[in-house]
Amino acid sequence: MSLIPSIFGGRRTNVFDPFSLDVFDPFEGFLTPSGLANAPAMDVAAFTNAKVDWRETPEAHVFKADLPGLRKEEVKVEVEDGNILQISGERSNENEEKNDKWHRVERSSGKFTRRFRLPENAKMEEIKASMENGVLSVTVPKVPEKKPEVKSIDISG
What are the structural domains, with CATH classification, of the chain? Predict the structure, then answer.
């Protein structure tokens, strides 16, 4: 993640992408000592930054987020400040029994938030979201491009 602040007021994962506005995580990629890896209550940064693909088609902007193990009730899709698409949610820790002995904790838990500045051609009032098999799909239709009106002129003579 970039340590360079965005000119748009947030932090970006890619300094060349003005639309990516991820929440800054100073511990992203930080390796924990092996002794801490067995602590079941520890939040893991891998889920904090859920992976999202953003594809633009002629008709829409399509976002796909991998959110394995989450139900749609645990995920929020919101538009704030008129053009910021925010995807957020939380995965809870698994219940721990007193007699349980954890050998390895690799599945992540905790909160995540991803934010994207949508371009001016996005139709905010027509955004649709669906979730299937742990993949969130958000479709943001685009305003159709105005094609220049061409008027044919008769040539006399």
Answer: 1-94+105-143 (2.60.40.790)
